[in-house]
Amino acid sequence: MSFDLILFGGTGDLAWRKIMPALFQAFRHGSLPAGGRIIGVARDDLSDDQYRALIKARFDQVELAKRPSEEEFSRFAALLGYLRMDLSNPADYAQLAVRLQQRPAEVVVMYLATAPGLFTTVCEQIAVAGLNGPQTRVVLEKPLGHDLASNRAINTAVRSVLTEQQIFRIDHYLGKPSVQNLFALRFGNSLFEPLWRREHIANIQITMAEELGVEKRGKFYDSTGALRDMVQNHALQLLCAVGMEPPINAHADAIRDEKLKVLRSLKPWTPETLSQHVIRGQYAAGTIDGEAVPGYRQEPGVNPDSRTETFVALRTEIANWRWAGVPFYLRTGKRLAQSDAHIEVNFRPTPHAIFKSPQDCNAGNRLVIDLQPRDGLELHLLAQGADQRQDRGTPTLAPVQLDLDFDKRFGFERVGAYERLLLDVIAGRLNLFVRSDEQEEAWRWVEPILDGWSNDNHQAKGPRPYNAGTWGPSAASAMIARDGYCWSEES
Ligand code: BG6
Q: Where are the alpha helices (DSSP H) in 60-176?
Protein backbone atom coordinates (compact mmCIF):
# COMPACT_ATOMS: atom_id res chain seq x y z
CA MET A 1 0.00 0.00 0.00
CA SER A 2 1.42 3.39 -0.92
CA PHE A 3 1.35 6.12 1.67
CA ASP A 4 2.57 9.66 2.16
CA LEU A 5 3.34 10.82 5.66
CA ILE A 6 3.55 14.60 5.93
CA LEU A 7 5.28 15.55 9.13
CA PHE A 8 4.35 19.13 10.08
CA GLY A 9 6.90 20.29 12.64
CA GLY A 10 9.42 18.16 10.77
CA THR A 11 12.44 19.81 12.41
CA GLY A 12 10.91 20.00 15.89
CA ASP A 13 11.77 18.20 19.09
CA LEU A 14 9.05 15.58 18.81
CA ALA A 15 10.02 14.74 15.25
CA TRP A 16 13.63 14.09 16.30
CA ARG A 17 13.01 12.38 19.60
CA LYS A 18 10.02 10.18 18.85
CA ILE A 19 8.56 10.19 15.37
CA MET A 20 11.62 9.72 13.12
CA PRO A 21 13.21 7.06 15.36
CA ALA A 22 9.85 5.23 15.44
CA LEU A 23 9.49 5.41 11.66
CA PHE A 24 13.00 4.07 11.31
CA GLN A 25 12.28 1.17 13.68
CA ALA A 26 9.15 0.33 11.69
CA PHE A 27 11.27 0.42 8.53
CA ARG A 28 13.95 -1.78 10.11
CA HIS A 29 11.35 -4.27 11.32
CA GLY A 30 9.96 -4.45 7.78
CA SER A 31 6.54 -3.28 8.97
CA LEU A 32 6.42 0.05 7.16
CA PRO A 33 4.44 -0.65 3.99
CA ALA A 34 6.65 -0.48 0.92
CA GLY A 35 6.08 2.46 -1.40
CA GLY A 36 5.87 5.11 1.28
CA ARG A 37 7.16 8.68 1.35
CA ILE A 38 7.90 10.70 4.47
CA ILE A 39 7.92 14.44 3.89
CA GLY A 40 9.15 16.71 6.65
CA VAL A 41 7.55 20.17 6.67
CA ALA A 42 8.96 23.21 8.48
CA ARG A 43 9.86 26.87 7.89
CA ASP A 44 13.58 26.28 7.45
CA ASP A 45 15.03 26.56 4.00
CA LEU A 46 16.34 23.04 3.39
CA SER A 47 16.77 20.75 0.44
CA ASP A 48 15.75 17.09 0.64
CA ASP A 49 19.42 16.17 1.08
CA GLN A 50 20.00 18.72 3.83
CA TYR A 51 16.97 17.39 5.67
CA ARG A 52 18.25 13.81 5.36
CA ALA A 53 21.63 14.95 6.69
CA LEU A 54 19.95 16.60 9.70
CA ILE A 55 18.08 13.43 10.50
CA LYS A 56 21.19 11.34 10.12
CA ALA A 57 23.00 13.61 12.60
CA ARG A 58 20.14 13.24 15.08
CA PHE A 59 20.13 9.48 14.72
CA ASP A 60 23.71 9.52 15.97
CA GLN A 61 22.27 10.56 19.35
CA VAL A 62 19.78 7.71 19.76
CA GLU A 63 20.72 4.62 21.74
CA LEU A 64 23.12 2.35 19.90
CA ALA A 65 20.75 -0.56 19.36
CA LYS A 66 18.27 1.74 17.63
CA ARG A 67 20.82 3.58 15.49
CA PRO A 68 20.87 2.80 11.75
CA SER A 69 24.01 1.55 10.04
CA GLU A 70 25.23 3.57 7.02
CA GLU A 71 23.61 1.10 4.69
CA GLU A 72 20.31 1.07 6.60
CA PHE A 73 20.20 4.84 6.72
CA SER A 74 20.77 5.21 3.00
CA ARG A 75 17.83 2.88 2.31
CA PHE A 76 15.64 4.73 4.85
CA ALA A 77 16.74 8.12 3.49
CA ALA A 78 15.32 7.19 0.10
CA LEU A 79 11.84 7.59 1.66
CA LEU A 80 12.59 11.02 3.10
CA GLY A 81 11.87 14.37 1.54
CA TYR A 82 11.36 17.94 2.70
CA LEU A 83 9.05 20.83 1.94
CA ARG A 84 9.48 24.35 3.22
CA MET A 85 6.13 25.75 4.32
CA ASP A 86 4.81 28.75 6.17
CA LEU A 87 1.78 27.17 7.78
CA SER A 88 -0.19 30.40 7.68
CA ASN A 89 0.28 30.82 3.93
CA PRO A 90 -2.42 29.21 1.74
CA ALA A 91 -0.09 29.22 -1.28
CA ASP A 92 2.23 26.82 0.52
CA TYR A 93 -0.58 24.27 0.91
CA ALA A 94 -1.18 24.50 -2.82
CA GLN A 95 2.52 23.61 -3.24
CA LEU A 96 2.04 20.65 -0.94
CA ALA A 97 -0.93 19.53 -3.03
CA VAL A 98 1.21 19.71 -6.18
CA ARG A 99 3.92 17.62 -4.54
CA LEU A 100 1.39 15.00 -3.43
CA GLN A 101 -0.29 14.86 -6.82
CA GLN A 102 3.00 14.04 -8.51
CA ARG A 103 2.52 10.55 -7.14
CA PRO A 104 -0.92 10.03 -5.62
CA ALA A 105 -0.83 7.68 -2.62
CA GLU A 106 -3.58 5.42 -1.27
CA VAL A 107 -3.15 6.85 2.22
CA VAL A 108 -2.05 10.36 3.16
CA VAL A 109 -1.14 10.89 6.81
CA MET A 110 -0.82 14.47 8.01
CA TYR A 111 1.02 14.36 11.32
CA LEU A 112 0.66 17.63 13.25
CA ALA A 113 3.71 17.66 15.48
CA THR A 114 3.41 21.43 15.77
CA ALA A 115 2.34 23.90 18.43
CA PRO A 116 -1.35 23.16 19.15
CA GLY A 117 -2.16 26.79 18.31
CA LEU A 118 -1.64 25.81 14.65
CA PHE A 119 -3.94 22.75 14.54
CA THR A 120 -7.02 24.68 13.45
CA THR A 121 -5.21 26.66 10.75
CA VAL A 122 -3.47 23.61 9.33
CA CYS A 123 -6.70 21.60 9.15
CA GLU A 124 -8.58 24.49 7.52
CA GLN A 125 -5.84 25.02 4.98
CA ILE A 126 -5.58 21.32 4.20
CA ALA A 127 -9.28 21.50 3.30
CA VAL A 128 -8.90 24.67 1.23
CA ALA A 129 -6.16 22.92 -0.76
CA GLY A 130 -8.50 19.95 -1.30
CA LEU A 131 -6.29 17.64 0.74
CA ASN A 132 -8.99 16.40 3.13
CA GLY A 133 -10.34 13.61 0.92
CA PRO A 134 -11.18 10.15 2.31
CA GLN A 135 -7.59 8.94 1.89
CA THR A 136 -6.38 11.58 4.38
CA ARG A 137 -5.75 10.84 8.07
CA VAL A 138 -4.74 13.56 10.48
CA VAL A 139 -2.71 12.84 13.61
CA LEU A 140 -3.05 15.34 16.45
CA GLU A 141 -0.52 15.39 19.24
CA LYS A 142 -1.39 16.38 22.78
CA PRO A 143 -1.97 18.86 24.31
CA LEU A 144 -5.23 19.32 22.46
CA GLY A 145 -6.27 22.56 24.07
CA HIS A 146 -5.71 24.12 27.42
CA ASP A 147 -9.17 23.59 28.88
CA LEU A 148 -12.58 22.32 27.82
CA ALA A 149 -13.46 25.38 25.73
CA SER A 150 -10.20 25.38 23.74
CA ASN A 151 -10.36 21.61 23.29
CA ARG A 152 -13.88 21.91 21.93
CA ALA A 153 -12.89 24.74 19.63
CA ILE A 154 -10.11 22.59 18.12
CA ASN A 155 -12.35 19.55 17.81
CA THR A 156 -15.11 21.58 16.18
CA ALA A 157 -12.74 23.16 13.68
CA VAL A 158 -11.06 19.86 12.84
CA ARG A 159 -14.36 18.02 12.54
CA SER A 160 -15.75 20.65 10.20
CA VAL A 161 -13.27 19.49 7.54
CA LEU A 162 -12.61 15.84 8.49
CA THR A 163 -14.77 12.99 9.76
CA GLU A 164 -14.07 11.46 13.19
CA GLN A 165 -12.78 8.35 11.36
CA GLN A 166 -10.02 10.48 9.82
CA ILE A 167 -8.81 11.95 13.13
CA PHE A 168 -6.15 10.14 15.16
CA ARG A 169 -5.66 11.82 18.55
CA ILE A 170 -2.48 10.42 20.06
CA ASP A 171 -2.07 9.44 23.67
CA HIS A 172 1.22 7.59 23.44
CA TYR A 173 0.50 5.67 26.66
CA LEU A 174 -2.13 3.69 24.75
CA GLY A 175 0.59 2.53 22.36
CA LYS A 176 2.81 1.10 25.10
CA PRO A 177 3.00 -2.71 25.05
CA SER A 178 2.41 -2.72 28.79
CA VAL A 179 -0.89 -0.89 28.41
CA GLN A 180 -2.00 -3.29 25.72
CA ASN A 181 -1.09 -6.08 28.11
CA LEU A 182 -3.46 -4.56 30.61
CA PHE A 183 -6.28 -4.92 28.07
CA ALA A 184 -5.10 -8.49 27.40
CA LEU A 185 -5.01 -9.28 31.11
CA ARG A 186 -8.52 -8.00 31.66
CA PHE A 187 -10.29 -9.09 28.49
CA GLY A 188 -8.25 -12.08 27.30
CA ASN A 189 -8.30 -13.97 30.60
CA SER A 190 -11.20 -15.02 32.79
CA LEU A 191 -9.19 -15.39 35.99
CA PHE A 192 -9.46 -11.90 37.43
CA GLU A 193 -12.78 -10.70 36.02
CA PRO A 194 -14.92 -12.16 38.85
CA LEU A 195 -12.68 -10.37 41.36
CA TRP A 196 -12.52 -7.09 39.43
CA ARG A 197 -15.15 -5.25 41.44
CA ARG A 198 -15.99 -3.49 44.67
CA GLU A 199 -16.70 -6.70 46.60
CA HIS A 200 -13.06 -7.81 46.27
CA ILE A 201 -11.00 -4.72 45.56
CA ALA A 202 -10.20 -2.27 48.35
CA ASN A 203 -8.49 0.41 46.23
CA ILE A 204 -6.58 0.98 43.00
CA GLN A 205 -3.49 3.15 42.69
CA ILE A 206 -2.03 4.52 39.47
CA THR A 207 1.50 5.90 39.74
CA MET A 208 3.41 7.61 36.94
CA ALA A 209 6.63 8.83 38.49
CA GLU A 210 9.51 10.41 36.58
CA GLU A 211 13.05 11.13 37.73
CA LEU A 212 13.44 13.66 34.93
CA GLY A 213 12.69 17.33 35.48
CA VAL A 214 11.26 19.61 32.81
CA GLU A 215 14.43 19.34 30.71
CA LYS A 216 14.38 21.89 27.87
CA ARG A 217 10.62 22.33 27.97
CA GLY A 218 10.49 24.83 30.87
CA LYS A 219 8.53 27.46 28.96
CA PHE A 220 5.93 25.02 27.66
CA TYR A 221 5.65 23.18 30.96
CA ASP A 222 5.26 26.34 33.00
CA SER A 223 2.03 27.17 31.20
CA THR A 224 0.87 23.56 31.31
CA GLY A 225 1.63 21.77 34.60
CA ALA A 226 1.27 18.13 35.61
CA LEU A 227 -2.53 18.07 35.62
CA ARG A 228 -2.77 19.04 31.95
CA ASP A 229 0.43 17.26 30.91
CA MET A 230 -0.18 13.86 32.50
CA VAL A 231 -3.48 13.55 34.36
CA GLN A 232 -6.03 14.84 31.83
CA ASN A 233 -4.73 12.35 29.27
CA HIS A 234 -2.35 9.52 30.24
CA ALA A 235 -3.53 8.94 33.81
CA LEU A 236 -7.22 9.08 32.91
CA GLN A 237 -6.67 6.71 29.99
CA LEU A 238 -5.05 4.24 32.39
CA LEU A 239 -7.93 4.69 34.81
CA CYS A 240 -10.32 3.89 31.96
CA ALA A 241 -8.34 0.80 30.96
CA VAL A 242 -8.41 -0.55 34.49
CA GLY A 243 -11.98 0.49 35.32
CA MET A 244 -13.96 0.01 32.09
CA GLU A 245 -16.52 -2.70 31.41
CA PRO A 246 -15.54 -5.39 28.90
CA PRO A 247 -16.26 -3.98 25.41
CA ILE A 248 -18.55 -6.00 23.15
CA ASN A 249 -15.71 -6.49 20.66
CA ALA A 250 -12.22 -5.19 19.96
CA HIS A 251 -13.31 -2.47 17.53
CA ALA A 252 -12.39 1.13 18.15
CA ASP A 253 -15.83 2.47 18.98
CA ALA A 254 -16.73 -0.44 21.25
CA ILE A 255 -13.60 0.26 23.30
CA ARG A 256 -14.04 4.01 23.24
CA ASP A 257 -17.71 3.78 24.25
CA GLU A 258 -16.69 1.91 27.41
CA LYS A 259 -13.89 4.33 28.24
CA LEU A 260 -16.29 7.22 27.80
CA LYS A 261 -18.69 5.65 30.31
CA VAL A 262 -15.92 5.53 32.91
CA LEU A 263 -15.10 9.19 32.36
CA ARG A 264 -18.76 10.09 32.66
CA SER A 265 -19.01 8.11 35.91
CA LEU A 266 -16.15 9.87 37.69
CA LYS A 267 -17.47 11.43 40.86
CA PRO A 268 -18.06 15.14 40.38
CA TRP A 269 -15.89 17.39 42.49
CA THR A 270 -17.25 19.29 45.48
CA PRO A 271 -15.47 22.10 47.36
CA GLU A 272 -14.60 19.54 50.08
CA THR A 273 -13.17 16.89 47.76
CA LEU A 274 -11.29 19.53 45.79
CA SER A 275 -9.56 20.73 48.93
CA GLN A 276 -9.00 17.33 50.55
CA HIS A 277 -8.54 14.93 47.66
CA VAL A 278 -6.26 16.86 45.33
CA ILE A 279 -2.67 17.57 46.32
CA ARG A 280 -0.34 19.58 44.09
CA GLY A 281 3.38 19.95 44.55
CA GLN A 282 6.37 21.63 42.96
CA TYR A 283 9.91 20.30 43.16
CA ALA A 284 12.61 22.19 44.99
CA ALA A 285 16.34 21.48 44.63
CA GLY A 286 17.40 18.02 45.68
CA THR A 287 19.38 14.96 44.65
CA ILE A 288 18.69 12.45 41.89
CA ASP A 289 20.97 9.40 41.61
CA GLY A 290 23.49 11.09 43.88
CA GLU A 291 23.62 14.28 41.81
CA ALA A 292 22.40 17.67 42.96
CA VAL A 293 19.63 19.04 40.73
CA PRO A 294 18.04 22.50 40.73
CA GLY A 295 14.52 23.28 41.82
CA TYR A 296 11.73 23.82 39.30
CA ARG A 297 11.79 27.60 39.66
CA GLN A 298 15.46 27.63 38.72
CA GLU A 299 14.91 25.67 35.49
CA PRO A 300 15.46 27.58 32.21
CA GLY A 301 12.24 29.06 30.83
CA VAL A 302 10.40 28.82 34.15
CA ASN A 303 9.06 31.90 35.93
CA PRO A 304 11.08 32.25 39.18
CA ASP A 305 7.77 32.82 41.04
CA SER A 306 5.96 30.05 39.23
CA ARG A 307 3.02 28.33 40.90
CA THR A 308 2.83 25.59 38.29
CA GLU A 309 2.48 22.10 39.73
CA THR A 310 5.03 19.43 38.87
CA PHE A 311 3.25 16.84 41.04
CA VAL A 312 -0.38 15.86 41.47
CA ALA A 313 -1.91 13.19 43.68
CA LEU A 314 -5.64 12.78 43.81
CA ARG A 315 -8.40 10.48 44.95
CA THR A 316 -11.49 9.81 42.93
CA GLU A 317 -14.24 7.22 42.55
CA ILE A 318 -16.03 5.67 39.60
CA ALA A 319 -19.65 6.01 40.61
CA ASN A 320 -21.19 2.93 39.04
CA TRP A 321 -22.42 -0.54 40.03
CA ARG A 322 -18.99 -2.19 39.75
CA TRP A 323 -16.89 0.37 41.58
CA ALA A 324 -19.12 2.36 43.97
CA GLY A 325 -17.09 3.37 47.03
CA VAL A 326 -13.72 2.05 45.79
CA PRO A 327 -11.08 4.81 45.90
CA PHE A 328 -8.88 5.27 42.84
CA TYR A 329 -5.70 7.16 43.62
CA LEU A 330 -3.72 8.82 40.81
CA ARG A 331 -0.24 10.17 41.31
CA THR A 332 2.26 11.67 38.89
CA GLY A 333 5.24 13.94 39.23
CA LYS A 334 8.60 15.04 37.92
CA ARG A 335 11.88 14.72 39.82
CA LEU A 336 10.53 11.92 42.01
CA ALA A 337 12.59 9.26 43.72
CA GLN A 338 12.38 6.78 40.86
CA SER A 339 11.14 6.50 37.28
CA ASP A 340 8.32 4.08 37.67
CA ALA A 341 4.85 3.69 36.24
CA HIS A 342 2.56 1.01 37.58
CA ILE A 343 -0.99 0.23 38.58
CA GLU A 344 -1.60 -1.47 41.88
CA VAL A 345 -4.85 -3.32 42.52
CA ASN A 346 -5.23 -3.91 46.24
CA PHE A 347 -7.60 -6.69 47.21
CA ARG A 348 -9.62 -6.78 50.40
CA PRO A 349 -8.31 -8.81 53.33
CA THR A 350 -9.85 -12.18 54.21
CA PRO A 351 -13.19 -11.75 56.01
CA HIS A 352 -11.96 -13.66 59.04
CA ALA A 353 -8.32 -13.97 60.10
CA ILE A 354 -7.09 -17.32 61.36
CA PHE A 355 -3.43 -16.46 60.61
CA LYS A 356 -1.40 -13.50 61.68
CA SER A 357 -0.44 -11.27 58.76
CA PRO A 358 2.54 -8.92 58.52
CA GLN A 359 1.67 -5.51 59.90
CA ASP A 360 2.80 -3.23 57.04
CA CYS A 361 0.03 -1.68 55.01
CA ASN A 362 1.13 -3.19 51.70
CA ALA A 363 1.35 -6.80 52.74
CA GLY A 364 -2.05 -7.97 51.51
CA ASN A 365 -3.08 -9.53 48.22
CA ARG A 366 -2.31 -7.23 45.36
CA LEU A 367 -1.79 -7.35 41.66
CA VAL A 368 0.80 -4.93 40.32
CA ILE A 369 0.74 -4.13 36.64
CA ASP A 370 4.22 -2.77 35.87
CA LEU A 371 4.07 -0.33 32.97
CA GLN A 372 7.65 0.96 32.92
CA PRO A 373 10.58 0.74 33.01
CA ARG A 374 9.61 -2.93 33.19
CA ASP A 375 6.58 -4.43 31.49
CA GLY A 376 5.39 -7.07 33.91
CA LEU A 377 2.88 -8.43 36.33
CA GLU A 378 3.35 -9.21 40.01
CA LEU A 379 0.84 -11.13 42.08
CA HIS A 380 1.47 -10.68 45.80
CA LEU A 381 0.21 -13.38 48.11
CA LEU A 382 0.77 -14.51 51.68
CA ALA A 383 2.36 -17.85 52.44
CA GLN A 384 3.67 -19.90 55.30
CA GLY A 385 7.31 -18.91 54.85
CA ALA A 386 10.51 -20.54 56.05
CA ASP A 387 10.14 -18.72 59.34
CA GLN A 388 7.74 -20.95 61.26
CA ARG A 389 7.22 -18.42 64.04
CA GLN A 390 4.06 -18.86 66.01
CA ASP A 391 2.47 -16.17 68.05
CA ARG A 392 0.48 -17.89 70.83
CA GLY A 393 -0.13 -20.83 68.51
CA THR A 394 -1.16 -18.66 65.49
CA PRO A 395 1.20 -18.99 62.49
CA THR A 396 2.46 -15.73 60.96
CA LEU A 397 2.30 -15.46 57.19
CA ALA A 398 4.98 -13.94 55.00
CA PRO A 399 4.57 -12.01 51.73
CA VAL A 400 5.58 -13.85 48.54
CA GLN A 401 5.12 -12.94 44.91
CA LEU A 402 4.60 -14.43 41.48
CA ASP A 403 6.51 -12.36 39.00
CA LEU A 404 6.12 -12.20 35.24
CA ASP A 405 8.49 -10.16 33.08
CA PHE A 406 7.00 -9.62 29.61
CA ASP A 407 10.21 -8.15 28.21
CA LYS A 408 12.07 -11.36 29.06
CA ARG A 409 9.19 -13.54 27.97
CA PHE A 410 8.62 -11.83 24.61
CA GLY A 411 12.08 -10.37 23.98
CA PHE A 412 13.33 -6.81 24.16
CA GLU A 413 12.78 -6.02 20.48
CA ARG A 414 9.14 -5.27 21.07
CA VAL A 415 7.32 -2.64 19.10
CA GLY A 416 7.56 0.76 20.82
CA ALA A 417 4.58 3.05 21.46
CA TYR A 418 5.15 5.52 18.63
CA GLU A 419 6.05 2.80 16.16
CA ARG A 420 2.89 0.92 16.97
CA LEU A 421 0.70 4.01 16.76
CA LEU A 422 2.21 5.21 13.49
CA LEU A 423 1.63 1.82 11.90
CA ASP A 424 -1.95 1.90 13.18
CA VAL A 425 -2.55 5.29 11.57
CA ILE A 426 -1.22 4.05 8.23
CA ALA A 427 -3.42 0.96 8.53
CA GLY A 428 -6.44 3.05 9.61
CA ARG A 429 -6.88 1.34 13.02
CA LEU A 430 -8.39 3.73 15.55
CA ASN A 431 -8.49 1.41 18.61
CA LEU A 432 -5.60 3.07 20.39
CA PHE A 433 -6.60 6.66 19.65
CA VAL A 434 -8.80 8.96 21.65
CA ARG A 435 -12.23 10.06 20.42
CA SER A 436 -13.30 13.69 20.79
CA ASP A 437 -16.06 12.93 23.31
CA GLU A 438 -13.61 11.06 25.59
CA GLN A 439 -11.22 13.94 25.44
CA GLU A 440 -13.89 16.52 26.21
CA GLU A 441 -15.20 14.48 29.12
CA ALA A 442 -11.68 14.27 30.56
CA TRP A 443 -11.32 18.06 30.28
CA ARG A 444 -14.74 18.54 31.87
CA TRP A 445 -13.59 16.52 34.87
CA VAL A 446 -10.22 18.25 35.38
CA GLU A 447 -11.58 21.74 34.85
CA PRO A 448 -12.95 22.27 38.40
CA ILE A 449 -9.46 21.47 39.69
CA LEU A 450 -7.90 24.04 37.37
CA ASP A 451 -10.53 26.60 38.28
CA GLY A 452 -10.03 25.95 41.98
CA TRP A 453 -6.29 26.51 41.62
CA SER A 454 -6.57 29.65 39.56
CA ASN A 455 -9.11 31.18 41.96
CA ASP A 456 -6.86 30.41 44.90
CA ASN A 457 -4.89 33.61 45.30
CA HIS A 458 -3.61 32.68 48.69
CA GLN A 459 0.10 32.03 48.11
CA ALA A 460 0.28 29.60 51.02
CA LYS A 461 -2.18 27.34 49.24
CA GLY A 462 -0.13 27.08 46.05
CA PRO A 463 1.76 23.90 45.19
CA ARG A 464 3.51 22.32 48.15
CA PRO A 465 7.27 22.14 47.75
CA TYR A 466 9.00 18.76 47.75
CA ASN A 467 12.66 17.99 47.42
CA ALA A 468 13.76 16.52 44.10
CA GLY A 469 14.45 12.82 44.57
CA THR A 470 11.61 12.19 47.03
CA TRP A 471 8.07 10.86 46.54
CA GLY A 472 6.44 14.31 46.56
CA PRO A 473 4.80 16.32 49.32
CA SER A 474 3.94 14.47 52.51
CA ALA A 475 0.33 15.67 52.12
CA ALA A 476 -0.05 13.02 49.40
CA SER A 477 0.73 10.29 51.95
CA ALA A 478 -1.53 11.93 54.50
CA MET A 479 -4.40 11.96 52.01
CA ILE A 480 -4.23 8.22 51.36
CA ALA A 481 -3.54 7.45 55.04
CA ARG A 482 -6.87 9.06 55.98
CA ASP A 483 -8.53 6.13 54.15
CA GLY A 484 -6.31 3.65 56.02
CA TYR A 485 -4.07 2.89 53.01
CA CYS A 486 -0.58 3.79 51.86
CA TRP A 487 1.17 4.28 48.52
CA SER A 488 2.84 1.23 47.10
CA GLU A 489 6.43 2.28 47.85
CA GLU A 490 5.67 3.06 51.48
CA SER A 491 5.66 -0.51 52.72
C1 BG6 B 1 4.47 13.29 27.80
C2 BG6 B 1 4.61 14.47 28.71
O3 BG6 B 1 3.16 13.23 27.27
O4 BG6 B 1 4.72 12.10 28.53
C5 BG6 B 1 5.99 14.51 29.33
O6 BG6 B 1 4.38 15.66 27.97
C7 BG6 B 1 6.30 13.19 30.01
O8 BG6 B 1 6.10 15.57 30.27
C9 BG6 B 1 6.03 12.03 29.06
O10 BG6 B 1 7.66 13.20 30.39
C11 BG6 B 1 6.15 10.72 29.78
O12 BG6 B 1 6.11 9.69 28.83
P13 BG6 B 1 6.92 8.36 29.07
O14 BG6 B 1 6.55 7.51 27.90
O15 BG6 B 1 8.36 8.73 29.11
O16 BG6 B 1 6.43 7.83 30.39
A: 70-77, 90-101, 119-128, 148-159
Ligand 1 pocket residue status of 229, Cβ below 6 Å:
yes
* Fold (CATH) for 3-141: Rossmann fold (3.40.50)
Provide the annotated active-site residues.
234
Distance from C-alpha of 488 to C-alpha of 206, rounded to nearest angstrom: 10
pLDDT exceeds cutoff 90 at 176? yes
pLDDT tens digits, 87-125: 999 999 999 999 999 999 999 999 999 988 899 999 999
| Architecture of the domain spanning 174-416+435-490 | 2-Layer Sandwich (3.30)
Pick the residue whose CA is nearest to atom 8 on ligand 1. 229
Cα(217)–Cα(219) distance, integer angstroms: 6
Closest CA to 208 of 194, 223, 227: 227
Distance of CA 209 to the CA centre of its chain: 12
Q: Determine the distance separating the centroid of ligand 1 and the alpha carbon of 305, expressed in angstroms.
A: 24
Domain ranges of the chain: 3-141, 174-416+435-490
Mean of all residue pLDDT scores within the chain: 93
Phi, psi of 347 (to 5 degrees): -85, 160
Residue of the nearest CA to atom 15 in ligand 1? Answer: 210
Specify the higher pLDDT residue, 390 or 375: 375
Q: Ligand 1 pocket, 210 CB below 6 A?
A: yes
